[in-house]
Amino acid sequence: MGNVLSAYIFFISDKSNKLLGWTSAVTGITLTIFVFPSGYFADKIGRDLLLKIAAVIGTIGLFFIFMVSGRK
To answer: Where are the domains of the chain?
Structure first.
């Protein structure tokens, strides 16, 4: 998915390498921060519950993205 996201950002941002670099850095740091705790909690509380929690958080995140992008 990372390659698709990078290509999407590159073409949507009028081929801006700077924006692509920043978004790639933020994505990489975020994945690094959350990958180990996610594995730990998946072992402790179960994958099904953790995936449901992730779906709710992702939906809330998309809502915020749509709200911010609608203000332009």
So the answer is: 2-69
